[in-house]
Amino acid sequence: MITLNINGERKTVEADPDTPLLWVLREQLALTGTKFGCGIAQCGACTVLIGNIAARACSIPLSNVNGRELTTIEGLATDADTPHPLQEAWIEQQTPQCGYCQSGQLMAAAALLRRNPNPTDEDINRAMEGNICRCGMYSRIRTAIKMAAARMAEAASLPLATEEVTDG
Amino acid sequence: MGKWTRRAFISAGVIAGGGILVGVAIRPGNLNDDVADTVAGEGETLVHAYVKIDQDNVITAIVPHSEMGQGSQTALAQMLADELDADWNLVRVEEAPALAKYSHYAIGRGYLLAGAELPGLIIPSFEGVMMRLSDALDLQVTGGSMSVRVTGTYGMRVAGAATREMLRRAAAKAWGVPLAEIRTENSTLFHDSTARSEPYVSFAEAAAEMTPSYAPKLKDPKDFKVMGQPVQRFDIPAKVDGTAQFALDVRRPNMVYATVRRSPVFGGRIDRIDDSAARAVKGVLDVVRLPVIGYDAFIGEFTADESVAVVAEGYWQASRGLRALDVRWNGDGNEAISSASIRDRQNQELEDAIDRKPDIDTGDTDEAFANADTVISADYRVPYLAHTCMEPLNATADVRDGTCEIWIGCQNPLGFKRAVAAALGFKEDNVILHNLLMGGGFGRKSRADWAIQAALVSRAVGRPVQLIWSREEDVRQDYYRPGLPSRFRAALDTDGSLAAWENTYVGKLEPVEAPVIPYAVPARNIGHVPSESYVPLGAWRSVDESQHGFFTECFIDECAAAAGADPFAYRAALLQDKPRHLAVLERAAEEADWDRPLGEGRGRGIALKESFGSIVAEVAEISIIGGEVVIDRIVLASDPGLAVNPDGFTAQMESGVIYGLTAAIYGEITIEDGAVVQSNFHDYQALRMSASPPIETHIINSGHKPGGAGEPGTPPAAPALANAIFAATGQRIRELPLHHHIPFSTGFRRAAS
Fold it and tell me: Is the ipTM of this complex over 0.85?
């Protein structure tokens, strides 16, 4: 029995400790937003947050995340009615095509903005380097990240700062 | 060739009345009753096979195409909504079920129409197989950039206009006023002189009793309100919060997971299996050697007994089990085949040119070469390519009591349903197929091999099974873009103008016109040498256009260089009788600031290719920094006739460019010992963000009939880049992938422009 802290909830799962986190999320916890793409941490479709770090769930054994704070795409928005600024920007830029890689792209971008609220192109390149989009929507992803960052900065400068900004 | 002619198609009674029509719209009578139970839910009225209206006056367009990221479901809804005068805010879209009522007469029809416009060429076929009427009747293909230009133009617009007509007739009758006085706007019917108005839904049931016209009056393009507008796609919101449902996300009660391995050597088989170690893996439930079932039809051949599957409680356990499985394969002698041996054989075929089939033979090439001032020649080559859709192939099948239910994301739901039924020996009606969003398609998901595997595994274990391919299996068991050589010769006059163009290549799929050049060359001889392929071949985004775009647009660049001419000006001079092509080329050059000199170590390349009804020109601008190529930007101009959803069209162009650049720079599948060498994204690389250039797309809405969007952006990408490398370095690269010849930057810096 391993206890996981996912999207603010504690979940207990029965699985071998060496099972990759990805398959526990998808097959045991019904969190299917995190995708399988390569199985060897090359494509980023399975990206989730461990704390504030983007990690490839296909290559993280369950035993490594015991007790750690995990966030998946299902937990990116603070609540169902309030999308994360990245999600809003993603829609405005009409970023996804097939959409399969986009959970991973969004989580990688979320990790970046938690660490670095005002990323340069170079910062974005480094943060997003592990995420392949076979539909090639890289330009739109870049634009959407910048748009979200600008809005989060603006929100942070207001008296009532949003949680996303303050916890980075 | 040419057996499957237009005459045969018409005489079979498929086209009634000789109009340009599609799907159920062309059949006499309103056949909605047959499908109403399936597609119309509570409170919804199916007014037309493609249109339903609910109690809140929400109109749902029922679209017979699947969604793999190309966004055509939204564009098709726009086309229907515009003709219907629908309120766009109250329009939704739904994918048609895999029922014969929603098959694509339009696909075959579109190919025939295309063939009719290409005199002297064979009638185009799908994946190189001659279409057979019985097959064509049962297709539901999303491919060939066909959705908007065929189904949309000849289907959705017709359906929208026909529905509007029926609603108007119903209102006129109910109100007792002349039909001509009924006006429509925003999903509402108006009779102005009596100040009456009613929402469409008020007359939906009355309209549903009528027979839709197959030739309603269509709008003049100047009256379009929804077509040509950049609307937001319906499918995107669910793709940013993890709720979008792909086949991999299907969960069924009592479901187990499986993964599979097919003979790594193509055409090989299983000699013997020792499954004791695999069965000992925790969580493994069964090892299933697939039965001897062959399937060979329009959708492509497939032999199941080359495969073994491991079934387990989860995918991870199944994949561990597969790794532990001891299989001895028998390659049947094919182990001797390698990329080198294939290359040698193709080069010999090119040299011998036995049975060379002309695609185009016009003018006197012999004389032109005899009188030429300069003759240049060059051999080009491209490698095999895999598709590597982001979503690895997977399907969930539940076979029991003589029925099969299957959940999948595929490019041909009806064809897949039939393939699965045939493999199981079931009647088609006993197979229910649910088509979900595809995590990429690019042509790969038009082949039903993995659907058949999933059904056979479920039958073997008597439970619902989700079969998931590993990425390694995906790379090694693809239906590949062909690898092939292409040989050119050109005759130049003293002033450098082109007198003759000669081209011979090995192997041909489709579309037939792929090697055709738009340039006014007096003598042209283009032909191919038929060739059997050991490597399984299939449609890969833009199919043959992908390689011929590279071949022809690089060689015309060589001609320009030999003539000492500017590559843009040289092309432009040869396009004086092709105003659409010329306009696209000029627009790309102008937007790219073609005449502005670039500094040392920088260069621009240009390429032009018409494919799938759209003309695209791309200018690649590059820098050589520290000996590495950096792509600074791609400027693209396209004339698709009409971009129905301009932002969607732009996104498709961006996508096509990146797909093309990825292949040009890195893409290569090689064969050793009869099997594919590459296995995953570490050795079959994809372009990543840091090395991806900004792409500027400029659309020319020329008013011609709509062209495709999904594929036409890809063919010019490789030649534009290769030509830019020549401009910057003087190095002419004639074989892909480019990274074998010059290093590419992985990004992280970009030259100031």
Answer: yes
